[in-house]
C-alpha cells in the first residue's frame, strides 16, 4: 500500500499515524530522537538528523507523500526530500509560518488584524520598539518558539535589558499585549481540489504559556464564529494550502485579532477526536492523500484538557470517569511542561 511520510515523531505524528493506518496507509516517521511517541505506532522510523543527506533521500524515496508535525524543518532538508516526493502543506505555508515577522506581514497583507509589532535585533531597536508599541508587551523569538518558550514579558523600559540578555542576539519581535476577552482557534482544512472545511471554533485557556483547555462550542457570539471561519478560509486560499491548519485568534472589543497560524494539526483541535465523525487527523491525511474532505461537523459538546507533567498522576481517577475519552502519548517520563496526553470530556450537543 501507499506510504505516508511524517517529519517529526511527537504526539501529533503519532495521532496522524493512527489516522493514516485507519485509512489503509502505511506510515514512516523521520525523527532524530531514539524513541519518539509516533515510532510506537508507525510502520517505520528513520532515526537520523536533519542534515543527513542520504537518510533524507532514502526516506523520501520510500514515501508516496510527505507531511510534517512541526513547522521548523530546516529548508535544506525540505529541498532534498521535496525534490523526490511531494510535501503537503506546501513550502509557502512553511515559509510564512516559521518566522513570526513574515507571518504577521502575510496576515496584514490579507487585511487581517494582528498585534502591534516591531522587529528587534539589538538594544536600540528594542528601545525604539517599546517607545512605539508601549507596554505591557511580549518579546518573542521570531523562529522556533512553542508552548510560550522564547518569550519574555516587557512591563516597561527597565525590563528591556534582562530580556535582551536572555535572547542573546537571536532575531526577535516585540508584540503589544492584546487585551482579549478570550482566545479561540479554528482548525481549518483544504483539500487538493480547493475544497475548504472548518471545524467549529473552540475557546482556549492557557496556563504558563501552554494550552490547558479547549471548549467547544466557544461561548462567543455566532457572528464571531462566522468571522473566524471566513478568515481561516481566506488564509487557506492565499497559501494554496493542502492539509489542516490551526489559526489562533484573540477575541477583542474590536473583533478578531490573529495571534499565529500553525501549518499542521493543532493541539486545540484534539477535541475533534470525540466531537466529530472525522477528526482533524483523518481530515489532514485525507487532504494530503488527495481524498475528498470528510464530515467535520460537530455532533457533541467537548472540553479537551491537556495532561501536562504531573497531571498524569490523576490518570486512575480520570480512567474511571464517565464520558471521558483518554488519549495518551506513551511518553515514559513525566517532566514539568511535557505534554503526556489529553482527555476529551464529551456531552450531548446543546441547542444554540
Ligand atoms: P504555541 O505555538 O504552543 O501555541 P507559542 O510559543 O507560539 O505557543 P504564542 O501563541 O505566541 O506562543 O503565545 C502563547 C500564549 O501567550 C497565547 O496563546 C496568549 O495566551 C499569550 N500571548 C501571546 N502573545 C500575546 C499578545 N501579543 N497579547 C496577549 N497575549 C499574548
Ligand atoms: Mg506557536
Ligand atoms: Mg500559540
Automatic annotation (TrEMBL):
<dbReference type="Pfam" id="PF02222">
    <property type="entry name" value="ATP-grasp"/>
</dbReference>
<feature type="binding site">
    <location>
        <position position="140"/>
    </location>
    <ligand>
        <name>ATP</name>
    </ligand>
</feature>
<feature type="binding site">
    <location>
        <position position="100"/>
    </location>
    <ligand>
        <name>ATP</name>
    </ligand>
</feature>
<dbReference type="InterPro" id="IPR011761">
    <property type="entry name" value="ATP-grasp"/>
</dbReference>
<dbReference type="InterPro" id="IPR040686">
    <property type="entry name" value="PurK_C"/>
</dbReference>
<dbReference type="Pfam" id="PF22660">
    <property type="entry name" value="RS_preATP-grasp-like"/>
</dbReference>
<feature type="binding site">
    <location>
        <begin position="145"/>
        <end position="151"/>
    </location>
    <ligand>
        <name>ATP</name>
    </ligand>
</feature>
<keyword id="KW-0547">Nucleotide-binding</keyword>
<comment type="subunit">
    <text>Homodimer.</text>
</comment>
<dbReference type="InterPro" id="IPR054350">
    <property type="entry name" value="PurT/PurK_preATP-grasp"/>
</dbReference>
<dbReference type="InterPro" id="IPR011054">
    <property type="entry name" value="Rudment_hybrid_motif"/>
</dbReference>
<dbReference type="InterPro" id="IPR013815">
    <property type="entry name" value="ATP_grasp_subdomain_1"/>
</dbReference>
<comment type="function">
    <text>Catalyzes the ATP-dependent conversion of 5-aminoimidazole ribonucleotide (AIR) and HCO(3)- to N5-carboxyaminoimidazole ribonucleotide (N5-CAIR).</text>
</comment>
<feature type="binding site">
    <location>
        <position position="206"/>
    </location>
    <ligand>
        <name>ATP</name>
    </ligand>
</feature>
<feature type="domain" description="ATP-grasp">
    <location>
        <begin position="104"/>
        <end position="289"/>
    </location>
</feature>
<keyword id="KW-0067">ATP-binding</keyword>
<comment type="pathway">
    <text>Purine metabolism; IMP biosynthesis via de novo pathway; 5-amino-1-(5-phospho-D-ribosyl)imidazole-4-carboxylate from 5-amino-1-(5-phospho-D-ribosyl)imidazole (N5-CAIR route): step 1/2.</text>
</comment>
<comment type="function">
    <text>Catalyzes the ATP-dependent conversion of 5-aminoimidazole ribonucleotide (AIR) and HCO(3)(-) to N5-carboxyaminoimidazole ribonucleotide (N5-CAIR).</text>
</comment>
<dbReference type="InterPro" id="IPR029752">
    <property type="entry name" value="D-isomer_DH_CS1"/>
</dbReference>
<keyword id="KW-0436">Ligase</keyword>
<dbReference type="GO" id="GO:0034028">
    <property type="term" value="F:5-(carboxyamino)imidazole ribonucleotide synthase activity"/>
</dbReference>
<dbReference type="InterPro" id="IPR003135">
    <property type="entry name" value="ATP-grasp_carboxylate-amine"/>
</dbReference>
<keyword id="KW-0658">Purine biosynthesis</keyword>
<dbReference type="InterPro" id="IPR005875">
    <property type="entry name" value="PurK"/>
</dbReference>
<feature type="binding site">
    <location>
        <begin position="175"/>
        <end position="178"/>
    </location>
    <ligand>
        <name>ATP</name>
    </ligand>
</feature>
<dbReference type="Pfam" id="PF17769">
    <property type="entry name" value="PurK_C"/>
</dbReference>
<feature type="binding site">
    <location>
        <position position="183"/>
    </location>
    <ligand>
        <name>ATP</name>
    </ligand>
</feature>
<comment type="similarity">
    <text>Belongs to the PurK/PurT family.</text>
</comment>
<protein>
    <recommendedName>
        <fullName>N5-carboxyaminoimidazole ribonucleotide synthase</fullName>
        <ecNumber>6.3.4.18</ecNumber>
    </recommendedName>
</protein>
<feature type="binding site">
    <location>
        <begin position="259"/>
        <end position="260"/>
    </location>
    <ligand>
        <name>ATP</name>
    </ligand>
</feature>
<dbReference type="InterPro" id="IPR016185">
    <property type="entry name" value="PreATP-grasp_dom_sf"/>
</dbReference>
Amino acid at each position: 500500500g501507499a506510504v505516508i511520510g511524517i517529519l517529526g515523531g511527537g504526539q501529533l505524528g503519532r495521532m496522524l499515524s493512527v489516522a493514516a493506518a485507519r485509512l489503509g496507509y502505511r506510515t514512516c516517521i523521520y525523527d532524530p530522537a531514539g524513541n519518539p511517541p509516533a515510532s510506537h505506532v508507525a510502520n517505520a522510523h528513520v532515526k537520523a538528523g536533519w542534515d543527513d543527506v542520504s537518510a533524507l533521500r532514502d526516506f523520501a524515496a520510500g514515501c508516496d507523500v510527505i507531511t510534517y508535525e512541526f513547522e521548523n524543518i530546516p529548508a535544506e532538508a525540505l529541498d532534498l526530500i521535496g525534490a523526490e516526493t511531494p510535501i503537503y502543506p506546501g513550502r509557502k505555508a512553511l515559509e510564512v509560518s516559521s518566522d513570526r515577522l513574515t507571518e504577521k506581514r502575510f496576515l496584514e497583507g490579507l487585511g487581517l488584524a494582528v498585534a502591534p509589532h516591531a522587529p528587534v535585533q539589538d538594544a536600540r531597536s528594542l528601545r525604539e520598539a517599546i517607545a512605539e508599541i508601549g507596554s505591557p508587551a511580549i518579546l518573542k523569538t521570531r523562529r522556533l518558539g512553542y508552548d510560550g518558550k522564547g518569550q519574555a514579558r516587557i512591563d516597561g523600559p527597565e525590563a528591556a535589558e534582562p530580556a535582551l540578555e536572555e535572547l542573546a542576539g537571536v532575531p526577535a519581535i516585540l508584540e503589544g499585549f492584546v487585551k482579549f476577552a478570550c482566545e479561540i482557534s479554528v482548525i481549518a482544512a483544504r483539500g487538493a481540489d480547493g475544497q475548504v472545511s472548518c471545524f467549529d471554533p473552540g475557546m482556549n485557556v492557557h496556563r504558563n504559556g501552554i494550552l490547558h483547555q479547549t471548549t467547544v462550542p466557544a461561548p462567543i457570539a455566532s457572528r464571531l464564529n462566522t468571522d473566524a471561519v471566513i478568515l481561516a478560509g481566506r488564509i487557506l486560499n492565499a497559501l494554496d494550502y493542502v492539509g489542516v491548519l490551526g489559526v489562533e485568534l484573540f477575541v477583542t472589543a474590536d473583533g478578531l485579532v490573529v495571534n499565529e497560524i500553525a501549518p499542521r494539526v493543532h493541539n486545540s483541535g484534539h477535541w475533534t477526536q470525540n466531537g466529530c465523525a472525522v477528526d482533524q487527523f483523518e481530515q489532514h491525511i485525507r487532504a494530503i492523500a488527495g481524498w475528498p474532505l470528510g464530515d467535520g461537523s460537530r455532533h457533541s459538546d467537548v472540553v479537551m484538557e491537556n495532561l501536562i507533567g504531573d497531571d498524569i498522576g490523576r490518570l486512575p481517577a480520570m480512567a474511571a470517569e464517565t464520558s471521558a475519552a483518554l488519549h495518551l502519548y506513551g511518553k515514559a517520563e513525566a517532566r514539568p511542561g511535557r505534554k503526556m496526553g489529553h482527555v476529551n470530556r464529551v456531552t450531548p450537543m446543546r441547542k444554540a
